[in-house]
Amino acid sequence: MSDAPPLNVLFLCTHNSARSILAEAVLNDLGGGRFRAFSAGSSPRENQQPNPLALEVLERAGISTAGLRSKSWDEFGQADAPHMDLVITVCDNAAGEVCPYWPGHPATAHWGYPDPSEVSGSDEQRLEAFRQTLHAIRRRLELLVNLPAASLEKMVLESTARSLSNS
To answer: Does 161 fall in a domain?
Structure first.
């Protein structure tokens, strides 16, 4: 393992309650010290909390939910915020929004996933939608964390992350 600092990855969605929360938790679980994940929303609702079904599927998958909370992306534009190496939108709404200025010009990518919180039906059907989203996110993040270090260097990180959107 290299002595390089971990790559900071920020996952964005509109409300920061489901997809971005899932991605943050999964990457922190898989990252092995090479990655540090965060998540935020462009417009989280007042008193927004992570979706309970998102937390349930993470817990059932053995992934820690400690510290997960919904927050605005404004938090990451502050002077004392961690520097981001990669910013990934995980919902189509956030992809089309004007993002704040990110210090250091991080690489960006869009990995769209359907919103599992919009699925209606029985509790089991709704939970299954979250489970499917979790698995889709995990597949893509497994590819990312297994990339060689050269693929994660700043100049190629953006094209590498964007190519995973087709995976």
So the answer is: no
The amino acid present at 136, given as its one-letter code, is A
Task: Check which CATH number belongs to the domain holding 64 and give it.
Answer: 3.40.50.2300
List CB contacts of 106: < 8 A, sequence separation 6 or more. Answer: 10, 83, 84, 85, 86, 87
Structural domain range at position 39? 7-155
Rounded to whole angstroms, how far apart are CA atoms 21 and 19? 5
User: Does residue 167 lie within any of the structural domains?
Assistant: no
Edge-first strand listing for the sheet containing 35-41: 35-41, 7-13, 86-89, 107-110
DSSP state of 67: T
Give per-residue pLDDT as tens, 22-35: 999 999 999 988 99
Pair type for strands 35-41 and 7-13: parallel
Q: Which residues of 96-106 are buried (b: 16+ CB within 10 A; e: fewer)?
A: eeeeeebeeeb
Tokens of 161: 């992350």
pLDDT tens-digit series, residues 2-16: 567 899 999 998 889
Cβ atoms of 105 and 73 closer than 8 Å: no
